[in-house]
Structures are given as structure tokens and as C-alpha cells.
From TrEMBL:
GO terms for MF: 2-hydroxy-3-oxopropionate reductase activity; NAD binding; NADP binding
Family, as annotated: Belongs to the HIBADH-related family.
Taxonomic classification: Bacteria, Bacillati, Actinomycetota, Rubrobacteria, Rubrobacterales
Keywords attached to this entry: NAD, Oxidoreductase
Pfam families per record: NAD_binding_11 (PF14833), NAD_binding_2 (PF03446)
Annotated 3-hydroxyisobutyrate dehydrogenase-like NAD-binding domain residues: 165-285
This protein's record includes keyword Oxidoreductase: yes
PANTHER family cross-referenced by the UniProt entry: 3-HYDROXYISOBUTYRATE DEHYDROGENASE-LIKE 1, MITOCHONDRIAL-RELATED
Protein name: 2-hydroxy-3-oxopropionate reductase
Stretches that traverse the bilayer: none
Superkingdom of the organism of origin: Bacteria
Domain 6-phosphogluconate dehydrogenase NADP-binding: 2-162
């Protein structure tokens, strides 16, 4: 199986590396060509100069891009994947994008005799490096089965959740829970610190009870060291909450707390902290208290 990969960022690079290690013959493309050249040099992958060229030389193409505008451009824009896809090509978007766009892409791709899956992930940069991502997949069952060996090279929990768009719906739900958890832990830490209790003590105690959650575990070092190297960028998490809110409008669902935390992430971005890890929301909550 010849595999194409577009988008070699924090997540895409290690995911593509895991595919090479699993023995797949890879063709790669990235907006900043230099990154793709470095990847090809390191792994022996082939280079392509456009998404179209990637699709022309692949049976399956995977994309890992920032969000909906880039996904739309790479799939449907000039020189896009759709121009190079053949009958039987399978196009898989693993970016966090919109369910509505995923359904639109699936329709356009199907009209061409090719097929598409939306397969966003959770598990962060660590999961991408270790090949332990959770992958939630929307699309046809037979396309899912065809892609399964690729997913198994990149992830551990692989679930077909429904038709086209369903993967992105589950990812939006995931991002609501993660964002609101980061917000809650941040408030707890600021309250604790102001009350004279060390942050590590708060995390230790809360982790052992009903309040315990994975955010406390995975982001612990960032909260304590106050070094917010990404990881998952705050501005991408804001993008994810916007997708959730847009989906809420589409399905007639009220998401009031999501709307509030989207505004908090917006304020964090306005402070110039958008490229920090999403756990840097702590800084904003602190600033509300004058710390
Ligand atoms: N990081 C996480 O912890 C995490 C976890 C789960 C899901 N996600 C999701 O995964 C996706 C990728 O995240 P990331 O952290 O890997 O982002 P990232 O580091 O910004 O990587 C995005 C990559 O896409 C490339 N790109 C952008 N537009 C392109 C285009 N038109 N054609 C070709 N390549 C293009 C970028 O190229 P340049 O080199 O030119 O910038 C960059 O290499 C996002 O949707 C994010 O929400 C991230």
C-alpha cells in the first residue's frame, strides 16, 4: 500500500514516522517544504510538491493540518488532493476539523469514485510519538477496515463511531471536556495558591478523589514548572471550541460553558499566548485575580 502524508507538524511528523517504521512506503508534503525535505532525508520517504502530487502517487492519503480552512484548501483547493485522487483512492483527514466540512468533503470525494474518512485523534504529542493515539473514525465501515492497519501503526484505541462527520463530532465532544477540565483545574490551583496551599499538594490530593482527571496527570509538570511549551497549542484549542459551538448551532444544542471557555482562550490569544500549550489557560485565570 502506497501512503501519502500531508502536514508534518507537532503531530503529523511522529505519526508519519510511525508509518515508515511499520514498513509503509511514504510520500510526504508540507506547506513549508524544508520540513518535508528534512523528513524525507531522515526516513527515506518520497517528496511531493503539492497535495495533488501526493494523491497521484498514493493509494491512501492522510492529512494532519491545523483546521478547517487548511483542510478545505488541501482537499478541494487548486492543486488539491481531489485533483490527484483516482477511483479507489482513500483520503483520511486526521486533523481536528468541522463535522460539516467532513461531510462535504466525503460527498465531493465520493462523486469522484474515491472515498474519505474523518479520523481525528486524541492523546497529544506524546501519544503521537509513542503510537498510542485514540482515533475516532467517521465514514463507511469498509473504508475503516481498509485503513485499520494504518491506524494501528499510529494509535491504540481505534473506534469506528459512525458515518462521515461522526469522528469530528466525537472529537468536538472530547475537546469540550478537556477545555473545561483545564479551566476547572486552573481555578482550583489559583484558589489553592491564594489560600496558601502549594500547587503540588492540591494536585496530589485532588487526583486521589472524584475530582481526579487526566488533565491533572498529563499537564501536571506544565502547571508546576509553569513552562508552557506546546503540546497542544492554545489557539488550536480555541479553534476546536469554535467547531464545537458551530456544531452546537447546527444540531440545536446549547453549550454555555463551552462558549465561556472559548472566550477565555480568545483572551489568552489576545495576550500573545496563543502558541503556548493549552494548559497556559492557568495564566489567564491568575491574571483575573491580579496574580
Ligand atoms: N498537538 C496536539 O497535542 C494535538 C492533539 C490532538 C489533535 N491535534 C490536532 O491535530 C492537528 C495538527 O496539530 P499540530 O499540533 O500537529 O499542528 P502544527 O504543529 O501546527 O502542524 C500543522 C502542519 O500542517 C502544515 N500545513 C498547514 N497548512 C498546510 C497546507 N496548506 N499544505 C500542507 N501543509 C500544511 C504546517 O506546515 P508549516 O510547517 O508551514 O507550518 C504544519 O507542519 C490540528 O488540527 C490539531 O488541532 C493536535
Amino acid at each position: 500500500m502506497k501512503v501519502g502524508f500531508v502536514g508534518l507538524g507537532i503531530m503529523g511528523w511522529p505519526m508519519a514516522e510511525n508509518l515508515v517504521q511499520a514498513g509503509y512506503d511514504l510520500t510526504v508534503h508540507n506547506r513549508t517544504q524544508k520540513k518535508a525535505e528534512e523528513f524525507a532525508k531522515k526516513t527515506g520517504a518520497q517528496l511531493a510538491h503539492s497535495p495533488k502530487e501526493v494523491a497521484e502517487s498514493s493509494d491512501v492519503v492522510i492529512t494532519m493540518l491545523p483546521g478547517p480552512p487548511e483542510v478545505e484548501e488541501v482537499f478541494l483547493g487548486e492543486g488539491g488532493l481531489i485533483e490527484g485522487a483516482d477511483t479507489g483512492t482513500l483520503l483520511i483527514d486526521m486533523s481536528t476539523s468541522s463535522p460539516m466540512l467532513a461531510r462535504k468533503i466525503a460527498e465531493v470525494v465520493r462523486e469522484q469514485g474515491a472515498s474519505a474518512l474523518d479520523a481525528p485523534v486524541s492523546g497529544g504529542d506524546v501519544g503521537a510519538r509513542e503510537g498510542t493515539l485514540s482515533i475516532m473514525v467517521g465514514g463507511e465501515e469498509e473504508d475503516f477496515e481498509r485503513a485499520r492497519p494504518l491506524f494501528e501503526a499510529m494509535g491504540k484505541t481505534i473506534t469506528h463511531v459512525g458515518p462521515s462527520g461522526a469522528g469530528q463530532v466525537v472529537k468536538a465532544a472530547n475537546q469540550i471536556v478537556v477545555a473545561l477540565s483545564i479551566e476547572a483545574v486552573s481555578e482550583a490551583l489559583v484558589l489553592g495558591s491564594r489560600g496558601g496551599v502549594a500547587p503540588e499538594k492540591i494536585l496530589d490530593v485532588l487526583s486521589g478523589g472524584l475530582a481526579g482527571n487526566r488533565v491533572m496527570e498529563v499537564k501536571r509538570e506544565k502547571f508546576l514548572s509553569r513552562s508552557f511549551e506546546p503540546g497542544g497549542k492554545a489557539r488550536y484549542h480555541r479553534k476546536d471550541l469554535r467547531i464545537a459551538l458551530e456544531s452546537g448551532r447546527e444540531y440545536g444544542v446549547a453549550l454555555p460553558a463551552t462558549a465561556l471557555v472559548e472566550q477565555f482562550f480568545g483572551a489568552l490569544e489576545a495576550r500573545g499566548d496563543g502558541d503556548l500549550d493549552h494548559s497556559a489557560l492557568l495564566r489567564l485565570i491568575e491574571s483575573l485575580t491580579g496574580s
